Amino acid sequence: MKILLIEDDVMIGENIQIALENESNLVDWLDNGIEAEELLLKHSYDVVLLDLSLPQRDGIEILNSLRKRGDTVPVLIMTARDTVPERVSALYAGADDYLVKPFDLDELIARMHALVRRSCGRVDALYSAGDVIINSATRQVSNKQEQIILSSREWAILDALISRPGAILSRSRLEEKVFGDLTDIDSNAIEVYIHGLRKKLGQKFIVNVRGVGYMVEKQA
């Protein structure tokens, strides 16, 4: 997943970034509201983790601007503001979830995954097709009941595809998911990772729609 982390506390930000990147996510971390708002105008993300007490621009202002221009990216608020009126205000402003500091990183990550699943219309964390079973919450993948080990980039591609079963994702979209803003990318990199996934999950698991992109079938 591509995640925008907006947090001005260095220790908290570093810990969250490390935890998320250890799960093979792409994380952009900013520590002030102005830069965060500018980045949100230029790039798309799967989820935003937003502190409220930020220098230069308050988190609620960022959230209001995001929703007013019609951006529906899931936003998880993480803040020390713990009164009921503050929670209500953030939720009415368009926040999808609200987590009070201090919090457990495992809870943050679990809530984040739940938001992304719901935003994709996928409530269940399990995806299955034939002998392949994928748990997006735990990142466990099995084929014919045998556990499959995936590289971080193989997982990034697989997660993007099962997040939208039946939808065709272009190579450029998959490159964005896997490599973020990197520009020095081999022209056939995505094809190489798709080939590796097919060897592990079956040649027919990922469908190539010639000239358009890749997809996995909808679940029955």
UniProtKB/TrEMBL annotation:
MF (Gene Ontology): phosphorelay response regulator activity; transcription cis-regulatory region binding
GO annotation, cellular component aspect: cytosol; protein-DNA complex
Top-level taxon of the source organism: Bacteria
SMART domains in the cross-refs: REC, Trans_reg_C
Keyword Cell division set for record: no
DNA-binding region residue numbers: 124-218
Name the UniProt record assigns to this protein: Response regulator
Pfam families reported in the protein's UniProt record: Response_reg, Trans_reg_C
Residue list for modification 4-aspartylphosphate: D51
Single biological process term from Gene Ontology: regulation of DNA-templated transcription
Domain OmpR/PhoB-type, first and last residues per copy: 124-218
Keywords: DNA-binding, Phosphoprotein, Transcription, Transcription regulation
Residues in Response regulatory domain copies: 2-116
